[in-house]
Amino acid sequence: MKFCSLCATPVVQKIPEGDSRLRYVCPGCGEIHYQNPNIVAGTIPVYENKILLCKRAIEPRKGFWTLPAGFMENQETTTEAAVRETWEEALARVKLGTLYTLFNIPQIDQVHLFFLATIKDGQYGVGEESLETRLFSESEIPWDEISFPTVKKTLQYFIEDRSNQEFPLRVEDIVRDRKT
Amino acid sequence: MKFCSLCATPVVQKIPEGDSRLRYVCPGCGEIHYQNPNIVAGTIPVYENKILLCKRAIEPRKGFWTLPAGFMENQETTTEAAVRETWEEALARVKLGTLYTLFNIPQIDQVHLFFLATIKDGQYGVGEESLETRLFSESEIPWDEISFPTVKKTLQYFIEDRSNQEFPLRVEDIVRDRKT
Ligand SMILES: [Zn+2]
Ligand SMILES: [Zn+2]
């Protein structure tokens, strides 16, 4: 951020009164421009014991397999975001179950949420952000070609928990080096 | 948003190629300025069966009682945010339990998360954003002076669930009229 989005004055970094963190502050209009983490929401879409994965058509990790997921938008709920992303990436309509995994990824300012889901009618397709989509049985999952750590961990937990049909919420941090 | 925060050119609202939503786009440098929901994280701090509430010293809802909670910051986890807010507002150090409530509030682009928590040493104080803090037994909770619906619902669920000592995750939408 270099300029105030309200008045175009060059912003400065300072700690506002009563605050304890450096913020972008506008010396022109006084606006404090807060920056906060984003939520990525997705699903584990299941049909007849198989899991639907999408081969990414876009960077990052183009060509790798992912669970359908993406940035939550303003004016929607986390569950709406998860359902929407599953439709957009895999043209699958899902019935959502419970929230299953929550990953904190502080070094990239993201929180990832995955919900249990079943594909309503067994139908799916290839959305604009996917090269290919496919139902995988457990033994077919391409573990070496999974896009992101949060997707891999969600799949691992799911397969582990499916054997006893209990899916407790998992809250976990993915921590690498943080910016300082 | 009126100006690009990178180059100060006046932004326009348009649907970028491959997208389906109106975004603020910079005709100067091409940047798409996405806007996404924010996370508010907090705790239900308990000590010897009593719940710690904070009387808000700041707007909105100044003078009303709240659970300690606030906006999650970049470079932290949801759990770190919850612990930090409890320290800042109530000078209480807590041991976190599980995630207990998740509220979607699409009309204000927020997701609220409350974690179970116990106050480590029974010590607490009055943080800068609080006028007063106090441990409340169940019968003392000032139901008519609670700050926000998500705080009230979290307290109600907690008291209900405490009787059988099971605290399943609650995911709920708080929906009023949405912007269109
Ligand atoms: Zn300004
Ligand atoms: Zn620009």
Automatic annotation (TrEMBL), chains A, B:
Protein name per its UniProtKB record:
NUDIX hydrolase
Q: Could you tell me which residue ranges the Nudix hydrolase domain spans?
A: 36-158
From the UniProt record, which GO molecular function terms apply? Answer: hydrolase activity
Q: Which Gene3D superfamilies match?
A: 2.20.70.10, Nucleoside Triphosphate Pyrophosphohydrolase
Q: Which terms are listed as keywords in the entry?
A: Hydrolase
Q: Where is the signal peptide?
A: none
Q: Which Pfam families match?
A: NUDIX, Zn_ribbon_Nudix
InterPro entries noted in UniProt: NUDIX_hydrolase-like_dom_sf, NUDIX_hydrolase_dom, Nudix_N
Classify the source by domain of life.
Bacteria
- PANTHER family noted in UniProt: NUDIX HYDROLASE 23, NUDIX HYDROLASE 23, CHLOROPLASTIC
- Record keyword ATP-binding present: no
Q: Which organism is it from?
A: Oleiphilus messinensis
